[in-house]
Protein 1
Amino acid sequence: MYTAKGQGGQMAFDGQYVTITREGFLGRATHGRGEKRLHITSISSVQWKPPGALTNGFIQLSIGGADRQAAKGSRTLDATKDENSVVFTRKQAPDFEKLRAALEQAIATQHAPQAPAAAMPASLADELGKLAQLRDQGILSPAEFEAQKARLLSQ
């Protein structure tokens, strides 16, 4: 579980869900008190602005590919109004960096091509059944069938 507390909000990630919680005066003043949960599959990207010497940073989650790009100089102010963002100070940044790395890894995993499932090895009974069919069809002689059966049973 990754948790990071920022200005007016907290963001937590449990591997499946991101939970944004608003508490305290600043949280209620900007978004109202409450909690928002987002499944990792609904998050398409993470926008990140590190804190500067005189400005706060923010982490902003894009939902369904809808990236919001504010004009330079007003990005942090706009992030304070976005319900999918949490603003943080320099002191809080390390926790948010860890959270960001975990989110980006989970998003990449969600979008990675899935490897096809390996073919299930046939059971011994299946193999013996196939050999019996080959024998019954005349493809294998009774002696060849017995030899292959002995080979399978000795494995």
Note: The chain has two domains: 2-111, 124-153.
Protein 2
Amino acid sequence: MKILMTLDDKVREYKELLDKKDELAEQTKLNNKAVEDLEQEIAQMMVDEEKPDTTVDGFKYSLQEKTIYSKIGEDKLMEKGLDFFEVLREEGFGDLIVERVDSRTLNSAMNNLVEEIGVLPEDLAECLSVYSQLKISRRKANTKALSRAKKAQGETNG
């Protein structure tokens, strides 16, 4: 026999899911902060120990410097008499504008521009906060050569 849930039961279940969603969002926020803090600590240790990469448990971790571009606040833009979207359009980046500029897309475009011409144009530099941040990349380490060597060693000893 199937028991039908009432509307109130469904609403309670929905509320539980919303509460869990909020709890998970908070846990994610705390976890992301812990990951970021530890990443900066590891990056500093790599710099201090002059060891730009290390392999741990089958993964290679390497020090990378990434340049981050982010739009400065509207109040500062207004003080300068600038319209960020107008500057992007004038500099040929109007296609980045949807309703907002995605930070990853902006970073990618600005990195490509600086790589291409060597400098950030003055008008863009006035609209953006630019800083460098050390990041850690994580990749599966290539263990094929090690596996082949171990296999060959086993055949020789066997």
Note: The chain is about 60% helix and 20% strand.
Protein 3
Amino acid sequence: MKLDRIDLQILRLLQENSNRTTKSLAEELNMSTTPVFERIKKLEKEGYINKYVALLNAKKIGLKQTVFIGITLQGHTRSYLEKFVKQINEFPEVVECHRVTGNFDYLLKLVVKDVEAYEKFIITKLTLLPYLGSVQSYIALSKGKQTHELNLDVL
């Protein structure tokens, strides 16, 4: 499926607010609701839209500390990589895990209550993984930008 101008506009609008009704999207696009609904269903079916979520205010609910962790593994076999990712996916503190180039094998993003919760995570979970090489942490002091909206203008 190749995305056209209308598909991209639907994706833009849904990124801004996925809670919008099909009717309101259709009005903004100067279309009727049925074709907009059909396009959204096609975008979902084709995997352009993975799911709809509510973005929570982490600080408001008490998760005030963001930490980035650079991980180097002892080995780089497929088995090590798969075991690491499988284990990391079991840790609810980890909200993102990326295999990266450079000095680390993986970059993790954690959102936790505070520094003490981060320390507990390190001691009781992360450092118990048998295939860890090194761990380097970066505690976020403030947030300069955070968005979940992809730049569709470059397409």
Note: Strands lie at 65-73, 94-99, 106-112, 132-139.
Protein 4
Amino acid sequence: MSTVSNIVVCLHRPNYTLAMERLQAFKFELQPNGEQVRNMRRFAGTCRFVYNKALALQKDNHETGNKFIGYVPMAADLPKWKRETGFDWIKDPPSQALQHALKDLEKAFKGFFEKRTDFPRFKKKGSGDSFRYPEPKQIKLDQANNRIFLPKLGWLKYRKSRDVLGEVRNATVSQSGGKWFVSIQTRRDVEIVPVATSAIGIDVGIARFAAMNDGSYIEPKNSFKTQMQRLAKYQRRMSKKVKFSANWKKAKAKVTQIHVDIGNVRKDFLHKHTHTLSKNHALVCVEDLQIKNMSKSSKGTAEKHGKKVAQKSGLNRAILDQGWGEFRRQLEYKTAWNGGVLLAVPAQYTSQTCPCCGHVSKDNRKTQAQFLCVDCNYENNADVVGAINILERGQRLLACGETAALGRSVKQEPIEATKLKTA
């Protein structure tokens, strides 16, 4: 059944069951012993080395005018690297973890070739350290005793916050803020009986994080802004220490922890609100914002300096502090999990179009918050007007049998094809 048909059923037929194959990740904090911590650091460092070595080869290959080296021939060189003098330590991690590092590089190049991402960059120590076990047969999960078995690490205890549901597909070990985590991806079939039948339009902003077409809104959290002065204080302390000294490492750990706290507060804020919105609405319409373009620097070049650089820098910081991209990503898979659909519509002129008479003019928006139509004198909050127009555009696309920007996020587990059953 098509996506449009799914939306129509969601809105008009609440008595049905949606059968879905769900891929979901369960993340837990690990409680390793000293030897396991050392091994995880070594494994993550080796995967980083293999990634960087392969990237260097790809760059040299590109500069000489040769074609891109695919994963298969690159993986065939792994045994050769292990036999090189002085590189015996490459044999220590699981071979599949090293192979997956090469797959990550190929994925990064694919995004670059499709003009979705920038050119892949070399990985740095302590930034995104991780490695993956892609083979489920090698992973053993003992939920009764809160432990997991991973090859070459043995049994590791973890802080159990919920049960792991479904068949284990893979496991990813990562480090953040001095702590180690395991993310267990599972697959299971679920049957959902949607109860929501309403549709909502959402306009995201800075003064109001999200304004809805019914006039309600969500206040922004601004997790970075609230910690900015504290972060700057510890960054100044870090800058006064001798680089790589013991005191510098302590100061760096403090700065890192503040960044982790900022991210955790933002994620918690987004998860709570996306859960509520996806649970209560079958159709969620948002703007298809190009956040990367919106938050570009206006510094300019040495020949042509930019204008209002400081103001634009503050605006960029405020935009990125909101987490609009993560907000949309979470809404997308959560609405699908609840039997609904997220629809992204073109963002042009949503806050300058009168929802009453349809007149479009920049003069309609008197201020950042006030909307007053110069043609019919319709007055409302500008963000609410934007949300009304977003919902109207979504319904128009739906009525015409069209869908826009419905591609799933690459950061979230995919939702497989669905089928409907009448209850």
Note: The chain is about 40% helix and 20% strand.
